[in-house]
Amino acid sequence: xxxTSDTMPRGxxxxxxxxxxxxxxxxRVPGGGRRLLPVLxxxxxxxxxxxxxxxxxxxxxxxxxxxxxxxxxxxxxxxxAPVSKQAQHQAATQLAGLLSQSGSDRGAVIDAVVDVExxxxxxxxxxxxxxxxxxxxxxxxxxxxxxxxxxxxPASMMSALTGAWQASAxxxxxxAKWATDESGGCHKKTVQNDPNYKASLGPDSTAxxxxxxxxxxxxxxxxxxxxxxxxxxxx
Length: 235
What we know:
Blueprint: H1 4-7, H2 33-65, H3 85-102, H4 106-117, H5 123-145, H6 155-182, H7 195-224
Helix pairs in contact: 3-5, 4-5, 5-6, 6-7
C-alpha cells in the first residue's frame, strides 16, 4: 500500500504478541511469565500443606503406638518419712512400762486356775482374780491403742501384742465364769468338762501364738535401747 513503508520504522523488532517472527534461540511462553508465577506459588503452598498434614499424622500415630521410655527422673519417689530413732526409743520405753504391768497378773491367774482345777476352798476369790485379770488386760489394750509414737514401732509386732492381750482377756473372762460354775459344786473328775473352761482353750492358744510372735520382734528392739526382754510365758 502507498505510504506503508513510511509509517513502519525499519530495523525494529516486532512488538510482543504482534504475530511477528520469533528471534532464533528464544522460546515464547504463552500468556507471559507473569501469569505462571501465581501458579507456581499456589503449587508450592499445596506441597507445604500436604507435607505438614503427613508429619502431623505420623506424629499422632507414633504417640499412641509407643509411649516414650521413662527416664531416671520418672521413677516415683517414696513418700514415707524415715523413722525417728528418738521417737522410736520413746515409744519402746512407754511400751516396756505396759509390758511390766502385763505380767503382774500372770502368777495370780495361774494360782486361781490351779485352785479351781483342784476344787479348792477359794473358788469365790478365784472368780474375782480371773475377772480382774481380764479387766486389766482391757485397760492395757486401751493404753496400747493410744501409745505415743506407736507408728514408729513395727506394725506386725504391735498387731501381735494387741491380739495376745485381746485373746488373754477373753480367756480370763471365760475362766472367771468357770470358777463361778464350779463354786456351786465342784468335782475334780468333771471340772474340766465345764463349757466355760472349754471355751477358754481357743483364746488361750491364740494368746500363746501371738505372744511368741511379739517377743521375737520385741527383744531385738529392747536390746537396742537397753530395755527388758521377755519370754512369752512372762506376758
